[in-house]
Amino acid sequence: MTNNLPLGLAALLLATSLHAQDDLIKKISGNKSDTVGFRFTTVVSAETTPVEDQGSSGTCWSYSTGSFLESEMIKHGGPSIHLSKVYMARKSYEEKAVNYLRMHGSLNYGDGGLGHDVVNMYGKYGAIPEEAYTGLNFGNKENEFGEMQAVLKGMLDALLKAPNDGKLTPVWRKAFDGVLDAYLGEVPEEFTYNGKSYTPQTFAKDVVKLDADDYVEFISGNDVPYYTKSVLMVPDNWALQPAWNIPVEDITNVIDNALKVGYTVAWGGDVSEPTFSWKNGVAFTTMAEADELTKEERQDLFKSPQPEPVITAEMRQQAFDNYATTDDHGMQLTGIAQDQNGTEWYVVKNSWGESNDHKGYLYMSKPYVQYKTTAFLVNKKGVPGSVGKKIGL
Questions:
Q1: How far apart are CA 48 and CA 332, in angstroms?
Q2: What residues contact residue 44 under an 8 Å CB cut-off, 6+ apart?
Q3: Whole-model pTM above 0.85?
Q4: What is the SS3 assignment for 331?
């Protein structure tokens, strides 16, 4: 399906790292509220922490996967608390900067990332409760990363020129960290939680108590063999980390199984379709291509559930290859609901605050998820046995 966006906005979304455009997508997804005809009953629900707002930052991947880890903590009997998403993002920026220079600038640098970045940073650097590291360091009440990232990118591009006799100095990382400290605050070496002192590593070990090796990532494309690992070729996969490639029908098979046994899902995908409405809190596909809908059909999109197509591997691949499906947002799938026709939808927790009709949540149809998913993470215990056997779990 083709994005129904003004040409200028469409060009901007395609020409830049789409994760960094979360705030822009939020503004253009505010279709007029008309959900009288959508009636949902939740049938499966995992426990989650309260909805947050990522502010003016392209950190949906950190907020969604951070929330996913928070639900994992609850699932394993731990406390229901917010982890610092800014800490995870910051550690990712530090490592991404190293890769950017090692690749001589032939790598994406910006706010964006993927869910596996959060898990990797957690495994390597531990975690901090949000109260101990908010990232709000200059009077701002929410994240404002635009200026910070412009300064960081300018610094890295200057370093690429290696003005010191063609070599990088050993202190460039200290300079890079100095900029992060100025905008986000220094990372505490120790902090207090519930009256006890922790480091990020001891907090992860003694409070969070999750194993970074317990999580598996899936993608779906018909250009590589199924049940083998492949690299998702999107700009924000700066770590070039491979994931398991599965058929389109297994996207929902894995997600359904995970949710039904009490696990949530860290989801990444495309939300630039005209049938994704943040205001209405619904996302679905249509039988006709979006650019083929009549004016009357567009006006009726959000009045009630409607028939959706069967999604094929060929449809997914074509949409990915022609940029109709882009990797532009991350959210957390937390449950399953049924509409008034008995059709199942996924309950989705977003990180854009509580400004929509469902207080920060929305409902995505299963065909939409099959069509518009780029990658998703689950606990390996949530993977159905039929898939687990094929990937060696």
A1: 10
A2: 259, 260, 335, 336
A3: yes
A4: strand
List residues bridging with 198 in a β-sheet.
191
7-391 sits in which CATH class? alpha beta
Q: Which residues lie closer than 8 Å to 360 by C-beta, 6 or more apart?
A: 51, 349, 350, 352, 353, 354
pLDDT score for 295:
78
Which residues contact residue 255 at a Cβ distance below 8 angstroms, ignoring those fewer than 6 apart? Answer: 265, 333, 346, 369, 376, 378
**In whole angstroms, what is the distance from residue 113 CA to residue 17 CA?**
9
Which pLDDT does position 1 carry in this prediction? 34
What are the Cα distances from residue 358, in Å, to 67, 217, 256? 18, 28, 22
Instruction: Show the beta-strand stretches assigned E in 49-99.
Output: none
Q: Torsions phi, psi of 95, nearest 5?
A: -75, -35
Give 105's contacts (C-beta < 8 A, 6+ positions apart).
156, 157, 160
Give residue 25's pLDDT band: very low, low, confident or very high (50, 70, 90).
low
Which amino acid, one-letter code, is at 57? S
Question: What pLDDT is recorded for position 18?
Answer: 41
Q: How far apart are the first and last CA of the chain?
A: 35
Instruction: Return all residues near 204 (Cβ < 8 A) that are at least 6 apart.
Output: 122, 126, 127, 210
Torsion angle in degrees (nearest 10) through CA of 52, 114, 333, 364: 100
Token pair of 46 as six digits: 């995992």
